[in-house]
Structures are given as structure tokens and as C-alpha cells.
Amino acid sequence: MKPIQVGLIGLGTVGAGVFHVLSRNQEEIRRRAGRGIELVAVNRRNLDQARAIVGDKAEVVANARDIIANPAIDIVIELVGGTTLAKELVLEAIAAGKHVVTANKALLAVHGTEIFAAAHAKGVMVGFEAAVAGGIPIIKALREGLTGNRIEWIAGIINGTTNFILSEMRDKGLDFATVLKEAQRLGYAEADPTFDIEGVDAAHKLTIMSAIAFGVPVQFAKAHIEGITQLQATDIRYAEQLGYRIKLLGITRRRDSGIELRVHPTLVPAKRLIANVEGAMNAVVVQGDAVGTTLYYGKGAGAEPTASAVVADLVDITRLHTADPDHRVPHLAFQPDALADTPILPLSEVQTSFYLRLRVADEPGVLSSITTILAEHNLSIDAVLQRESNEGEKQTDLIILTHDTLEGRMRAALAQMQALPTVLGPIVSIRKEELA
Ligand SMILES: NC(=O)C1=CN([C@@H]2O[C@H](COP(=O)(O)OP(=O)(O)OC[C@H]3O[C@@H](n4cnc5c(N)ncnc54)[C@H](O)[C@@H]3O)[C@@H](O)[C@H]2O)C=CC1
Ligand SMILES: N[C@@H](CC=O)C(=O)O
Ligand code: NA
Asked: For position 245, which CATH number holds?
């Protein structure tokens, strides 16, 4: 049978990885897919650089739209990034009856509903395994491997740049700016690194996983997003003393009243496997009612790890090419007419526990005035750590770990504690998850 013909738009880091993996593993891929997969045309802004990568193995075309218009091409790979041109290209490819593979999480988190509806109507597939946690087959696991379960929650380290920054700050005592530069040099960071450090990239990926896990549309605009820019080395150290690590987690959890969708620095017990995921590695924990806890770990970024996922999607599409849309794996796991309208919860209704650090006057009665406020708001304390003050010092740090509560209650208590004359600086609060 004739090989399936593929065109690639955006031959950058990931695109070059796709070219190399497809070339290197050609024969094995053909045996798995039942048909050869041939990259016949590529496009990138700089044509000479494109030629330097593919040589005479694929045609370099000057206009991306020539790939979409080519009737011989069955699958278009979109790897240009961003949400403007990428959206146009993906929708045009779908309209032209092409299957699409993309690694673009920003595009799908924001415009996924429109794109998946267009693909379903046209009877084509959109593969996006590479968009979440790069090479880790988490979309496959959620959409296929775990379909027997009611998913309860997902918590993941899904941004390599920020995990690398936190690891390096903790292990080597380096400052934030130095480590960010290193992450950029190593190619982990997004073109605009604020997407990484402000938690936006993680929220894009979390939004996609949440939709698949709970059968709701993608709703990036409702995600609560905090990055790591406000995190201080002091809190990383105190957390360690209490047996916790601080990780930037994406958490989505089913509650009776709705779905939590949040990205923020989080204290995680140091004994959990996910607390020990270091550097640019990614890890996702999924809790299903039947399977219990499962953990997926691996490289969430980089040319070939990400290409591994892109090529897996090409194989899937090749295998499903002739199946009609109603009998394919649905884009968001649930059938498009079976998506639920379960609300995404406002932050005040999120349930979590807290680490608090208060700079307080070192005098009698301070601790009791604080615990009284916590008790008034029905907040119960899990542990307290008071740093011994040095002789002559008139202030000290008070660290409190709480049990689970509603975020809204904690906000009200924080406002009251902050107003105490004995509380001397802004109170630091970081959410804590036991993940068990
Ligand atoms: N680099 C990584 O580790 C990962 C990247 N992704 C996603 O994969 C996508 C691609 O990322 P990278 O390969 O890292 O980016 P990149 O910047 O290395 O590559 C993008 C390529 O698209 C080309 N391009 C941009 N605008 C174009 C236009 N108007 N016409 C033609 N070509 C154009 C650029 O010249 C460049 O070669 C993005 O959506 C990114 O978020 C996803 C997972 C991991
Ligand atoms: N910038 C991202 C790259 C992959 O998605 C990250 O750091 O994880
Ligand atoms: Na993946």
C-alpha cells in the first residue's frame, strides 16, 4: 500500500525532531502502522535552514498553504506555535479534509472546542499527544487506558522550565534569574518565558487534561493561574524542614459542586514520588476510582521526546484513517454530544490546605492571637514551627500548616491576621496537597 503522505509546517526544534525520528525509525513505524509514513513536504520561515535539515528527503515549500492545498497530503503537522497563524492553518487544513497533528497546547486550550468541532464535522482527526507533557503518553492514558475509571483528580508537574528552576534554586542555592537564563539556554523555555514562569503553559496543558478527564469543554479562561515568580528561597527551606517540597503543580479535581482547575506553587510531602521529580522532567499523577493512583513520568520537552508523541499520533491516524468519525477515539475522550456542563469552581470554593509564614513580633500572646483567628474561621492547624530568634532579635518567623479548608475561609482569616499589629510583614501563603 502507498505510504501515507505528511506535510509539516514549522520545521523548528520539534519539527526537526519529527524529521529525524521518522527517518531513523521508518521501517519499525511501517510495521506498526501497517503502512509507511512519509514526510513529503516541509515549511519554515527560513527556507535555507529547512533545506539544511531535510536535504533532498522532503520538498521544502515556501508557502505553508501549499502544503494544505496539496491533494496528495493526508496529514498536516502544525508546529509553528502561537494561536493566530496556527489557528488559521489548522482550521484550513481541517476544511481541506486533512488530519492534523499539533504540539500546540496554547492553541488547543483556548480554541480546542472550535477546532475539535470542525474536525468532527469534517470527519478528520486532530492528534495532540505532544501538547501535554511532551513525550509522556498522558493523552493516550487518559483517553484510552483509563476509560473504565471515574477520574477523581490529576496533579502534575507539567512545565519543565519551572521545575528546573525550583530544583536548581534548592540544590545549588542559585537565584531565580540565573537559573531561568540557563533554562532558556538549554531550550526548555517557551519563546516567551513568562508563559513558563507565570504558570500559563502549565495551565494550557492542565486545561486539556481536565477536559479529557471530566468530559467538559476546554475552558482555559476559568483556570486559576499562579507561577513561581513570587516564591522565596526562605519558604523552600522551611517547607523542607517540615518534610515537604514546593512544586509548581497543575491540579484539577472533581468536587460535588464542580471542578477545580488551578496552577500554583504547592507543598507536597517529600516522600511522594512526584516530590522527587527533579530538573526539567515532567510527572503526572492520576487518581481513578478503580485503578487508584497512577504516575506517568518522563521528558516533557525537547526535540525528540516531543517528536516521539507527534509520530505516535501519525501512527494512530494511519491506523484509523479509514474508520468513520463516530467510531474513532473522541478528541476529548467523551463523545462530543456527551460533554457535561459541570462548572469550573471559583477559587473561593477550592478545597486545599495551607502553609503560612508570618513575620511576627517575638512577644507573648502572638501565637494565641493568630490561632484564635484561625479557630474563628474554622481552620484547624496541622503543625506549627517557630524559628528560634537570636538573642536581641525582636521578631521571628512563625510557620503554620493547616488542614484542608475552603480557600475563601482562609482568605478571610488571612485578611484579619494581616491586620494584627504584631504581624510585621506580608503573610506568605502557599497551598499544600497530600496527594493521597
Ligand atoms: N520545544 C519543546 O520542547 C516543545 C514544544 N511544544 C510546542 O511545539 C510547537 C513548536 O515548538 P518549537 O519547535 O519548540 O518552536 P520553534 O520556534 O523551534 O519552531 C517553530 C518553527 O516554526 C517556524 N515558523 C514560525 N512562524 C512561521 C510562519 N509564519 N511560517 C512558517 N514557519 C513559521 C519558525 O521558523 C520555526 O522554525 C509550539 O506550539 C510549542 O509550544 C510542545 C512541547 C514541547
Ligand atoms: N516550555 C515548556 C516546553 C514544553 O512544553 C516546558 O518548560 O515544559
Ligand atoms: Na504527551
From this structure: 3.30.360.10
